[in-house]
Amino acid sequence: MQKQAEQVQQEHPEIDTFFTVLKYDTLFLYDSDEQLACRGVILTSLHDVSIHPSNLPDNEVFFKDVPIRLTRRDTEHDDVLDEESARDYYLFINSPVEKEDWYFALLKSEMAQPLEEPSPPLPPHVVSTLNFDPETMRRLIGQVYTDADKDNSMPWLNALVGRLFLAVYKTDLLREHIIHKIIKKTTRLRKPGFIDDIKVRDLYVGEQSPHIWDPHLLELSPDGTLRIALRIRYNGGFRVEIETGAVLSVTSHMRPIRVPVLLSAEVRHFEGRMLLKIKPPPSNRLWIGFFDMPDMDLVVEPVVSAKSLKYPMITQAIQSRIRDMMRETVVLPNMDDIPFFPSGGSGGIF
After folding, report:
1. In this protein, which residues make up the domain named SMP-LTD (predicted)?
2. Taking CA atoms, which of 117, 223, 262, 338 is between 20 and 30 Å from 241?
């Protein structure tokens, strides 16, 4: 990082200092915070906003010696702009926490439309995260403050978990991670003989985070063992679409037929008492499991050729197998693990 920072400084040895104000898609450059003398303006909607250099580690993106770059975008109006307006700019901000605010504000202003010319669209994942979903946030706030009236010990944790969830629940990375976990589980799942291999076709994470309450510290031992019990509830509507095939016998006089099946499994309610456990060193993972089979409102709605499938044996078989998978993986004495530190495949912190 030091070498990259020095390179940036060498590329831009003369740095002018301004008090800046961003209004819509215009960045005003003033001599001081009194805003009496404007020394220049920058139309951010004529530039692409990025961090320079690119592909930095996440913990280095907002270092104060890493600039925000405004790269001039070619337009059909270039002939009416002077040389000063056609240059690239590098913005250095002394406070890392304020730099993040500036970066996101500049990204939003980049989407404005200058000179009646539409800006190139930002990638969909950028647009969706810049336009924060206010309804999901209102639901989280309502739940957190309802909890505060009942128990002052947990609102902070549910607020933190909920806010982190709302930051990532629309991302492809989270969706692909969950799909990968489901695929790993289903490959080891015992299936009825009339059902083929299961493939994940689509996934909807839901818009609510799990809700945690009634925590108890069960153990913190000198050898490093940690055990915590808590209750967890989820009403977010997690849904996964699974594609498979089924061999059906319509009548005793007809040969069995194989049909494609699209199964929509939705978790409308999920609640149980959970155990969190960290074993003594060199363990590098958090183990999670439920003391008893969680209370789960699971709705499976198979679909064949866009028509509702009326064979209850398939619905019941899939529901039974999902519950079996839960019981075999996360109901004590079985537990699932979440590594909290990379081991490079060694299985622990050595």
Report:
1. 150-341
2. 338
